[in-house]
Specification:
alpha/beta; binds 2-phosphoglycolic acid; TIM Barrel; 11 helices
C-alpha cells in the first residue's frame, strides 16, 4: 500500500485554548518521515480554527471546519459561518453532512447547497454518509446511502476534492463498529455507486464511528479504506498518534 491515509480529527464541540497545547505532540509526530503517508487533518470548533492554523503552519497538518452554512453570500444568519469565511481564514477542509447535523435539520438538499458553496470556495469536502440503526434493521442501508450521495451531490461536477466518509450512525460514539466483512462489502458498494454516478474511478473513502486504539488493528485490514474520521479518540493526542502508528507500520 503506497497511498496516503487520512486521519481526520473531528473534535466536535470540545476543546478550548488549553487543549491546543496537547496537539504539539501530534505536530512533532507528523514530521516523522516514517509516517509520511499519514495526512492528518484537524477539524476543531470554529473558535480554535485560527489558533490551529497558526500552530500547524510549518507542518503538513491541514485544518478544516466541522460544518458550514449553505449560503454562498454574507447575510443575516446569526451564529453561522459559511464556506467563504472558512476559506478566508486559511482552512482547507470542511466536514459536510455529519449525522449530528443531519439530525438537527440538514436535509440532503441543504447538504447539496453546502457542498456547492464549499466547491465554489475551493475547499476540500469531507462528505459524511451513513444509515441509522433503524434504517439498518429495516434493510434500507443501501437506499439511504444512495440518496445521500445522489441528492447531496446533485449537479456537482467537480467532485475530485471530496473525501467520502462512511459513518454508520449506530457506530458513532457507541463503541460498536461493523464487522470487517460487512464494512468491506459496504465500502465496495459505496465505491460502485460513486463510480456509476460520478465516473470517479478511485474515490477516497474513509470510515468513521468509534475508531479507537483498540479496534484500529482490525479496521486497518480493510485495504479499500483510505483513512479514518475520528471523534472521541482524536481529542487525546497519545491515542490519536497511537491510531496512526498502528495503521501505518
Ligand atoms: P466517534 O465520532 O469516533 O467519537 O465515534 C466519529 C464522528 O462522529 O465523526
Amino acid at each position: 500500500m503506497t497511498n496516503n491515509m487520512f486521519f481526520i480529527a473531528n473534535w466536535k464541540m470540545f476543546g478550548d485554548l488549553k487543549s491546543i497545547n496537547s496537539t504539539k505532540k501530534v505536530i512533532k509526530f507528523s514530521k516523522n518521515k516514517k509516517y509520511k503517508r499519514a495526512q492528518i487533518i484537524y477539524c476543531p470548533p470554529y473558535t480554535l480554527l485560527d489558533k490551529f492554523l497558526k500552530i500547524t503552519k510549518n507542518s503538513k497538518i491541514k485544518i478544516g471546519a466541522q460544518n458550514c452554512h449553505q449560503s454562498q453570500f454574507p447575510g443575516p444568519y446569526t451564529g453561522s459561518i459559511n464556506a467563504s469565511l472558512i476559506k478566508s481564514i486559511g482552512a482547507k477542509y470542511v466536514i459536510i453532512g455529519h449525522s449530528e447535523n443531519r439530525v438537527s435539520g440538514d436535509t440532503n438538499h441543504i447538504i447539496n447547497l453546502k457542498v456547492k458553496s464549499a466547491i465554489k470556495n475551493n475547499l476540500n469536502i469531507i462528505f459524511c454518509i451513513g444509515e441509522t440503526l433503524s434504517e439498518k434493521k429495516n434493510k434500507k442501508t443501501n437506499s439511504v446511502l444512495k440518496s445521500q450521495i445522489l441528492q447531496g451531490l446533485k449537479n456537482v461536477k467537480n467532485n475530485k476534492n471530496i473525501i467520502f466518509a462512511y459513518e454508520p450512525v449506530w457506530s458513532i460514539g457507541t463503541g460498536i463498529i461493523p464487522k470487517n466483512e460487512n464494512l468491506k462489502k459496504q465500502i465496495s458498494l459505496i465505491k460502485k455507486m460513486i463510480n456509476k454516478h460520478y465516473k470517479l474511478k478511485n474515490p477516497k473513502i474513509i470510515y468513521g464511528g468509534s475508531v479507537s486504539t483498540k479496534n484500529i488493528a482490525e479496521l486497518k485490514k480493510i485495504s479499500s479504506i483510505n483513512g479514518f474520521l475520528i471523534g472521541g479518540a482524536s481529542q487525546n493526542s497519545k491515542n490519536f498518534i497511537d491510531i496512526i502508528k498502528k495503521t501505518i507500520n
